[in-house]
Amino acid sequence: MNRERLIRIAGQLGVDAEEAGRAADADEPVIARALVLRRIWNEIDALSASTGLLQAVPAGRRLVEAGADVDDLQALTAHAAYEMAFSVLFGLSEGMAADMPIDAADLPGVALMEIDSDGDLTDRNLVGIHESLLSADPSGMQGHRFLR
Q1: pTM
Q2: Does the pLDDT value for residue 31 go beyond 70?
Q3: Top-confidence residue, 146 or 77
Q4: What residues contact 74, with CB distance under 8 A and at least 6 apart?
Q5: Long-range contacts of 5-12 (CB under 8 A, 24+ apart)
Q6: Phi, psi (rounded to 5 degrees) for 96
Q7: Cα(61)–Cα(53) distance, rounded to whole angstroms?
Q8: 30-49 and 17-25 helices, crossing angle to 10°
Q9: Cα R_g (the chain), whole angstroms
């Protein structure tokens, strides 16, 4: 994909043009990274906007019935989802074996890799993707919306 098209597509996914250009020049998987981060934030936003989860889980239903503020519970749920996403991305990027009860040298590695439109590996790893999670917050608040 040529540089201009990559920057245009990345921009449609919310990536700053300057960042997209830098990533394109460094042959980094900027579009794959943006797709993963966008999907995660879409899920976090769906949790924070829905009361369905609070009604579906008995503990949530009890909290609402006891008078807990629904907006606070939704923010808490979304923040928990963010923390889980960060933890999983960190593990994929930095190694999953850190807290396992056996020697990490005996374990295989795990990687989040880009594939092309045909499903073939591009050999471009999304290393460090957890570091981009906050800055990819589509609200522009870098996760601070959970701290209101």
Answers
A1: 0.81
A2: yes
A3: 77
A4: 47, 48, 49, 50, 51, 54
A5: 6/30, 6/31, 10/34
A6: -90, -15
A7: 9
A8: 140
A9: 18
Q: What CA–CA distance (Å, rounded) separates 17 from 23?
A: 10
How many Cα atoms sit within 13 Å of 98 on the Cβ side? 9
Q: Is the pLDDT of residue 76 over 70?
A: yes
By C-alpha distance, which of 130, 120, 115, 118 is closest to 31?
115
CA distance between the termini of the chain? 41
C-alpha to C-alpha distance for 33 and 138, rounded to whole angstroms: 14
Pairing mode of beta strands 121-125, 113-115: antiparallel
Do 71 and 79 form a contact (C-beta atoms < 8 A)?
no
Rounded Cα–Cα distance for residues 137 and 134 (Å):
5
Distances (CA, A) of 38 to 31, 53, 59, 127: 10, 21, 29, 17
